[in-house]
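quick one: NAI bound model?
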Amino acid sequence: MVIKQVMVIGAGQMGSGIAQVCAAAGYDVYLHDLKKEFVERGLAGIEKNVQRLVDKGRLSVEEKAGLLERIKPSADLQNAKEVDVVIEAAVENMEVKKQLFAELDQIAPSHAILATNTSSLPITEIAAATSRPEQVIGMHFMNPVPVMKLVEIIRGLATKDEVYAAIETMAKELGKVPVEVNDFPGFISNRVLMPMINEAIFTLYEGVASKEAIDEVMKLGMNHPMGPLQLADFIGLDTCLYIMETLQEGLGEDKYRPCPLLRKYVKAGWLGKKTGRGFYEYS
Ligand code: NAI
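yep, here:
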């Protein structure tokens, strides 16, 4: 299968990064979001990132211009009628994703692969919202996308081998290392990572230590590049909460119960770096 035109849905932190690496690898990309302003914000972030690469001498001015030219803004889902692959990176909410996949199924050409960057939601359930579950697959990038090497590739129950192979090849062309994982809540990455983050939030909630101390222990003691509370801020506390709820619902065990402090922060709109405040403040 020849992949040329890609649509990335959601111009937030993940969607922008995915659009950037796709354009860098030579794909034509639609970056789609609900509103033009959201897409423009995503494009501004990409431009800033790419300029940093130019400043470091890792990209020429011509390469930067070519990369940016390959990304077209979209606030109309009808643009999906021209695409070979959709990578959905909208908010981590099953209803939103099902609705999007049902619409994409109507619009995208019959050969198109519909991939989702979901952190934890069942691929099989998202696929069931379409009439082409064999062409639906999980393509889970890590944050920040241009830097992190891993892509978890998750087959739904019906995903065809050719679709898996096409997405695996695409991930390699993006300079990533694909790892195959089966469709269970949270896959591997978030089933292991998110309970650790949730436990770190519990230690803060119970007054075991200050946020700085908790992060310092995990950085210096476990050699983690970033402490769990800072990492939660970078992921987005809303996304962390959605993932914990998916683990709790999907695996049915109390050990996945989200910490009440996490819920409180999300209710306050303290979603982490993207809103300027989470466990820490960001200017
Ligand atoms: P974000 O909050 O930065 O961006 C989400 C974007 O989706 C927003 O711009 C929003 O306007 C847009 N959106 C919402 N509903 C939409 C719709 N119906 N149609 C089009 N656009 C819509 O979120 P982020 O962090 O980029 O996460 C996106 C997805 O990627 C989620 O599924 C998340 O679980 C997953 N993910 C997140 C990671 C992280 O570290 N933040 C890592 C890997 C996956």
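The first helix runs from residue 13 to 24.
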